Amino acid sequence: MYNEQEVLPLLADRLRPVLDGLATTYEVVCVDDGSADLTPALLAKLDREWEQVRVVRLRANSGHQAAISAGLALARGAYVVTIDADLQDPPEVIAEMLDTAHREQVDVVYGVRNDRTTDSVFKRTTARAFYAIIRKISGTTAQSDAGDFRLMSRATVDAVNALPEHGRVLRFVVPALGFPSASVHYKRAERAAGTSKYPFVKMLKLSIDSMTGFSLFPLRLATYLGLGAGALIAVLSVALLVFARTGQTIPGWTSTVLIVAGVGAVQLFCLGVLGEYVGRMYTQMQARPSYFIAYDSLARESHPDVPVALDDPLGGRQLR
């Protein structure tokens, strides 16, 4: 949450009955992303009145994805649900998410918006186009209408926390892990109170982070442009030679154009090749694991009398 003094009391009134009705222990990690209004004071009051509330305040406004990452790093639950404070994503869906995770034996349950009429036509159109492009150039399976409202098992949260990359976009990081998943659908509501803290500039930054964090296409674009320019130069060279033989060009013009265009194409191609190597270094620096072990029979067979922590099918941890 960031500057959510208007909506915070409404959030507590709707969230607490849902969690109290789950018949399980829970905690509410409230991440205050450097609010400058009365949000910290309201959270302090909520902390005194609601035993399960844990308030985490960031020293400065670090951004939406960084705030979620902070919450994931501190949350202790067997399952973790991330939700924004604006009540556009209904807390009542949390119970359905938990039930789906148990019933279908999955690690991730995505909240998918089946009705986004509260969003502008521009936002809906650009969002769907953006997700389509990301899926095409990166190979991820992120759903178009799934944001950051999701349930994750402890194994998923631990995997996300183990990733060393900075500036990560969780709505693409989580699908990229490839853990078993399911979806629940809901109608996206209007903001309950206050104003949006996610203007176009922040959305644009999120888009850039997503593209550079999940695809080498921007780097390879230079290679593609270099190859395209080279092919164009080859065609242009033939045309210019024909014009030169027929005397339809200014003396020296043909050679000048060919040299400048040819050198430019070669430079662009070399830049693309360099980009390929930089891209591979960049991918290695991200150090995303290639797989995650859910069960190791050797650990149990080697020490049958010693309790060994294993991941259960739902992603939790248990002793055997």
Label the CATH architecture of the largest domain: Alpha-Beta Complex
Number of helices in the DSSP assignment: 11
Uncertain runs with pLDDT below 50, 5 residues or more?
Answer: 305-320
Structural class: alpha/beta
Distance between the termini: 39 Å
- Assembly of the depicted chains: single chain
Task: Count all strands and give the number.
Answer: 8
Provide the number of structural domains: 2
Strand content: 5-15%
Describe how the helices and strands are arranged:
Elements: H1 8-20, E1 28-32, H2 39-49, E2 53-57, H3 64-74, E3 79-82, H4 93-104, E4 108-115, H5 121-138, E5 146-153, H6 154-162, H7 170-177, E6 181-187, H8 200-214, H9 217-245, H10 253-286, H11 297-302, E7 309-311, E8 317-319
Parallel strand pairs: 1-2, 4-6
Antiparallel strand pairs: 3-5, 4-5, 7-8
Helix pairs in contact: 5-8, 9-10
Structural commentary:
The chain has 320 residues and is of the alpha/beta class. It has two domains: 8-214, Spore Coat Polysaccharide Biosynthesis Protein SpsA, Chain A; 217-286. It has eleven helices and eight strands. The radius of gyration is 26 Å and the shape is elongated. The protein starts with 7 loop residues before the first helix and ends with a strand. The model is unreliable at 305-320 (pLDDT under 50).
